[in-house]
Amino acid sequence: MRKLNEKKSIDAPNLWLIALAVCLVGLLWGASWYFIPRCLSTWQERGTFGDMFGAVNALFSGLAFAGVIIAVMLQSKELRLQREELEQTREELEGQKDQLTRQANYFEEQNFENKFFQMIKMHREFIKSINWTGAQGSFYFRDLNDFLRTELRKTLPVATSLMIASIERANCNMYKIHRFHLKNYFSNIQNLFDFVYSSKSDKKSFYVGILKSQLTEYELPVLFYYCQSKYGKTLHKYALEYTLFEKLDFDLLFYEQHLALYPRSVYGDREDGTVLDKLTFIDEPAFDHS
């Protein structure tokens, strides 16, 4: 309301000046009709008097044309300033957009990280809660590894197809007996890999490294054989892509030839590569990151 009153107070004098100028022009025009006939009696004198203002008319016409040109120039300048102002505004908006994008990415990364470590914590708590005939926590996987070795000892095939069939039978027997614990365990591991794999984080290798560091020496052989079974196809993909078995203790495997069931790259760059150098590995897979 205050601004409206100020506007009215500013506009009021301008209106009075315009009205005064119109009245003054009207008075002069009316006075000319009254005084010219009385001061100049003949039409010749009146014509001569009017011709005296011809040059003035030409002057005012020229000034009016110059005024139009100046108005066009001022308008062009004003439009240029408006364009520059709009360009500056656009650049500022783009800067704000980039800043908001960075903030959104930061919060998204923080949210992902919080969920990831929460999932890791829940998984470790689950392992600690395992109790199977006196074997608790990570020691449970030591017994599982012994179970798998016992199952694989029943047959000692050499052909690759027979090795896979032997591993499949051993996994099926293990899963039937230990289904209650293993279903949750393998599900947790796969969910963690799925969570990292499907994220938009540009630090996936970092988080996978943290995940792999959580796996104990006795968990890795169990995962090694599980990924060769029909149940572990998804984890098998992650094992290949993220070199899951680079810390695997070869001595915990039942048969040295089982190492050749994976590509050489799944074991990473190892110093103890003598065993690997003697084997013939399967071809490297092509990964689809889409």
The backbone outline, from C-alpha atoms, is rod-shaped
Strand content: under 5%
Helix share of residues?
Answer: over 70%
Q: What is the rounded Rg?
A: 46 Å
Distance between the termini: 60 Å
Count of helices? 9
Q: What is the string of SSEs from the N terminus onward?
A: HHHEEHHHHHH
If you average the pLDDT, what whole number results? 80
Largest beta sheet: what is the strand line-up?
A: 1-2
Brief characterization of the structure:
With 290 residues, the protein is an all-alpha fold. It has helices spanning 2-39, 43-51, 54-129, 139-153, 160-197, 204-213, 219-226, 233-241, 274-277; strands at residues 131-132, 135-136. It has a two-stranded antiparallel sheet with strand order 1-2.
How would you describe this structure to a colleague?
The chain has 290 residues and is an all-alpha fold. Among the domains are: 52 residues; 148 residues, no CATH class. It has nine helices and two strands. A two-stranded antiparallel ribbon has the order 1-2. Strand 1 and strand 2 form a beta hairpin. Helix 3 packs across helix 5, helix 4 packs antiparallel against helix 5 and helix 5 crosses helix 6. The longest helix has 76 residues. The model has no long low-confidence stretch (mean pLDDT 80).
